[in-house]
């Protein structure tokens, strides 16, 4: 990880040392990401399956808010990307009655899983071929998973009410990737990027973006496309094994301002 931070400092000095080119800026905000979510979170003996298909996004209250910032100068690129994703999934277990008397053994329970995921990137790029840039940078990942269990009534021998924090962690990874941008005419363009981790806290941390671009004017743009992100790790937290493996993928739509 320290080698990645050293490389970032070296690249930043190289960018600011060149004063012959003017800076150009691009702000992409707000951008909404509506992904399907698949995977699992386990803490000790507790395992929570996460499965929110795209058609159930609004029922699961899953959405992501994103923002990108790019600054270019000659062949150099400096960028930052922030993303917040929230998911809520609820299931209900059936009650259980005694076989002889019919008395209530368990009234059934509401089980709600809440997940907060934030992915934030700081990266540098260099144009190695026309429209093609090599990227390197640091990704910060924050995840928090909560489990709420509430009985449907006060009846029964098995009656559980409580909340548990299954996971809460800040992780950092050194990423490398590529980015390709191409404008076909004065209105339409495309932006494609992919990255993966080479060192850091996560075992798996890679993503892919493909965006269509429509320019209303030189300054005002519409961005639309698809994003895929896979994050997985296994580590110890408070003496227990914590495993997270999540895949988020889905469409995104946003506004971009160039200045």
Q: Can you offer a commentary on this structure?
A:
This is Outer membrane protein beta-barrel domain-containing protein. Residues 1-17 form the signal peptide. Keywords: Signal. The chain has 259 residues and is mainly beta. It has one domain: Lipocalin. It has one helix and 14 strands, in the order H-E-E-E-E-E-E-E-E-E-E-E-E-E-E. It has one helix at residues 2-17, and strands at residues 24-33, 36-43, 46-52, 63-73, 76-92, 96-97, 104-106, 109-129, 132-151, 162-183, 188-200, 204-215, 220-237, 240-258. Strands 1-4-5-8-9-10-11-12-13-14 form a ten-stranded antiparallel beta barrel. Strands 6-7 form a two-stranded antiparallel ribbon. The longest helix is centred in the N-terminal third of the chain and has 16 residues, at 2-17. The chain starts with a helix and ends with a strand. Mean pLDDT is 83; it is low at 2-6.
Sum this structure up briefly:
It contains 1 helix and 14 strands. It has 259 residues and is mainly beta.
CATH topology: Lipocalin
Radius of gyration: 23 Å
* Shape estimate: elongated
Low-confidence runs: 2-6
User: Can you count the helices?
Assistant: 1
Strands of the widest sheet, in order across it, are: 1-4-5-8-9-10-11-12-13-14
Q: Report the count of strand segments.
A: 14
Cα(first) to Cα(last) distance is: 34 Å
Sheet-strand content, in percent, reads over 45%
Average pLDDT reading: 83
Sheet having the most strands: 10 strands, antiparallel, barrel
CATH C-level class: Mainly Beta
């Amino acid at each position: 990880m320290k080698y990645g931070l050293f490389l970032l400092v070296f690249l930043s000095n190289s960018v600011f040392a060149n004063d012959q080119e003017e800076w150009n800026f691009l702000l992409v905000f707000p951008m909404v990401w509506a992904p399907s979510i698949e995977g699992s979170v386990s803490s000790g003996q507790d395992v929570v399956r996460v499965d929110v298909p795209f058609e159930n996004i609004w029922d699961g209250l899953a959405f992501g808010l994103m923002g990108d910032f790019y600054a270019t100068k000659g062949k150099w690129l400096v960028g930052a990307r922030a993303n917040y994703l929230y998911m809520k999934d609820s299931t209900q277990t059936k009650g259980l009655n005694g076989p002889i008397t019919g008395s209530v053994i368990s009234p059934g329970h509401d089980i709600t899983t809440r997940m907060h995921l934030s992915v934030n990137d700081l990266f540098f790029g260099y144009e190695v071929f026309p429209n093609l840039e090599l990227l390197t940078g640091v990704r910060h990942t924050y995840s928090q998973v909560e489990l709420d269990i509430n009985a449907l009534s006060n009846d029964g021998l098995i009656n559980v009410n409580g909340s548990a924090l299954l996971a809460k962690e800040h992780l950092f990874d050194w990423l490398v990737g590529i980015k390709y941008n191409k404008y076909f005419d004065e209105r339409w363009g495309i932006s494609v990027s992919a990255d993966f981790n080479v060192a850091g806290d996560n075992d798996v941390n890679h993503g892919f973006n493909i965006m269509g671009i429509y320019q209303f004017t030189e300054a005002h743009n519409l961005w639309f496309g698809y994003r895929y992100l896979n994050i997985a790790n296994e580590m110890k937290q408070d003496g227990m094994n914590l495993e997270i493996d999540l895949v988020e993928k889905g469409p995104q739509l946003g506004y971009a301002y160039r200045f």
